[in-house]
Amino acid sequence: MTARKTPQTMKPATAAKKLSVHLEATPAEFQEGVVSRDELNALQEAPPEWLQELRRDGPHPRPVVAARLGVSIGGLARGGITDPLTTEQINALKADMPGWLRRERALQGEVRKEAARIKEKKAHGRGARANG
């Protein structure tokens, strides 16, 4: 006899994170159940209206807010942003461009430049060793 495989499932919080949505904004049936890997794949491939709306309008979880503002999650915290934001709120912040957001965007730009410089240096170092 072969053992029957049970489908791999995850908690709603994990599924919401993988879908890049704020769990508390999802429908009750999503929050109260478990999500199988197949269900998650189906949600990603053909998102229902509620998921499309959440992705478009929010509220968005911190990683999404940070990405849309072009800052780190730590930068959000330094700016006093600890709650999920809607797309409208994110756009208002971009339009107002408060001082903290300008500073964090500049800092994030420097971090990216440094990461690119290090990556280039490592790649160049490997190439030199391979030729030597």
Number of E-type strands: 2
Largest sheet: 2 strands, antiparallel
> How much is the radius of gyration in Å?
20 Å
Number of helices: 8
- Lateral strand order in the biggest sheet: 1-2
The geometry reads as flat
Ends distance = 58 Å
- Low-pLDDT parts are none
What's this, in brief?
This protein has about 130 residues and is mainly alpha-helical. About 65% of the residues lie in helices and about 5% in strands.
Task: Explain what the structure shows.
The protein is mainly alpha-helical. 67% of the residues lie in helices and 3% in strands. It has eight helices and two strands. Strands 1-2 form a two-stranded antiparallel ribbon. It starts with 8 loop residues before the first strand and ends with a helix.
Topology, element by element:
Blueprint: E1 9-10, H1 12-19, H2 28-32, E2 35-36, H3 37-45, H4 49-57, H5 62-69, H6 73-78, H7 87-96, H8 99-131
Antiparallel strand pairs: 1-2
Which key features would you list for this structure?
single chain; 132 residues; mainly alpha; two-stranded antiparallel sheet; 8 helices; 2 strands; 67% helix
